[in-house]
C-alpha cells in the first residue's frame, strides 16, 4: 500500500466522519476535479489552445466544486454566479499579468534537471503559464464564494452592513494567510537554496522561478479579494 493510497483512505474516512454524506460528495468532487486536471493536461499536450482549455475546464471545475460542496441550492447558485463573474475578470488579469512578467518557461535553476531533454515539444510556454495561472485560482475562488454565500444566507435579515463587513474581513484575512503560507511552505526549499548560495535580495526578487510563483499566488490573492464583495453583491441581488 503506497503513501498516496493510504493518505487517500485516511482523507476519505475523516470526510465521512466529519461531513457524513456531504463529506462523500466532497471527496467525489475532489476525484472529479483530479480527472478534469488530467484531461486539461492531455488536451494542452494534444495541441489545443491552453488558455481555451483552461477556461472550459475551469468552468467545469467551478461547477463540480461548488454544486457538490453544498446541498443548499440557493447557496450553490449564488456562489457559482459570483465565481463566474470573478473568473471572467481573472482571465484578463492572468493573461495580462503573465504577458507583462515574462516569467513563462523554465529558469536557470532547472537547467540540470532538463539536461538531456528537448524543449522543442510544440507547446507555447507563455500560454501554459497563463492556463496554470487561471486554473490555480479556481480553488480559492470556489472556497471564498461558497463561504460568503453560506454566511450571507445564514445571516438572512441580520445581514446588516456591519455584519457583512465582518464577513468580508474574516474570510479575506484567513484566505490570504492560507495562500501565502502555502506559497512559502512550498517554496521553502528554494529559499534555503538561495540562502546557501548567498543570492543577493535583488537577484532573488528578479529570479524567474521566484517571480513566477509569486505572481501565481498574487493572482489567487486578487481573485479572493474580488470574490468576497462580488459574492455579497450577488447574494443581495438574489435575496
Secondary structure layout plus pairing:
Layout: H1 3-19, H2 21-45, H3 50-67, H4 73-101, H5 111-114, H6 125-135, H7 138-155, H8 161-186, H9 188-196, H10 201-205, H11 208-238
Verbal overview:
The protein is 81% helix and 0% strand. With 239 residues, the protein is an all-alpha fold. It has a domain of 157 residues. The longest helix is centred in the C-terminal third of the chain and has 31 residues. The protein is globular and about 55 Å long. The model has no long low-confidence stretch (mean pLDDT 80).
With helices defined by DSSP (H or I, 4 residues minimum), what is the helix count?
Answer: 11
Low-confidence stretches: none
Helix content: over 70%
The best one-word shape is: globular
C-alpha termini separation: 50 Å
Structural class: mainly alpha
Major beta sheet summary: none
As a whole number of angstroms, the C-alpha radius of gyration is: 20 Å
Number of strands: 0
Strand content: under 5%
Report the mean per-residue pLDDT as an integer.
80
Question: Could you write a compact summary of the structure shown?
Answer:
This protein has 11 helices and no strands.
Q: Tags for this entry?
A:
transmembrane; globular; mainly alpha; 11 helices
